[in-house]
Please model this.
Amino acid sequence: MAAVALLAIVSCTAVSCGSGTSKQGQSAPAAHATANSTVLEVDSLLKNAETLVGQPVVVEGVCTHICQHGGGKIFLMGSDDTQTIRIDAGEKVGKFTPETVNSLVRINGTLNEERIDEAFLSQWEEQAKAQAAAQHGTAGSSCESDQKARGETPVNSVEERISNFRKRIAERQAKEGKNYLSFYSVTADSYEIL
Model:
């Protein structure tokens, strides 16, 4: 957490010197509040995600990865690599620039929830059976960063991934009485590199 705070201070200092600009070419504000809402760190957003689904959010974190298939998504890390959230480029953003990687990034967007339950897994199994060779981003395959953001352990097949999800759902059912897993992402309306 101290490292993220230090990075934020260094980034804010750089912004005040004029080196940080937003996607729209405006200087990035040094304060942790925007005109409309408070800026959340990734850890705080994930901790409170259940109550923020469908709402506009502003989140900051270090970009650890950009999708190589067109720059349509990035991943922001919080205090450590277990605190990661996927950011999808919204219609207004289009795609993220390569400069976002290893930078402190502020996202304005909407928080989304994807639920994985037995119905989803059964449908996924059927699709996997129908496709002989899964390609990156289809039929259940996803990049390593996406899997890490979901707290998944590395696997060798779609079937193993589905099995692992079923185990995690059973654990959550036993602990919390919820028969699904929730994964959160933000659809970005705008972003700025700080």
Observations:
- Residues 1-35, 132-140 have pLDDT under 50 and may be disordered.
- The beta strands are 39-41, 56-66, 73-77, 84-89, 104-116, 181-193.
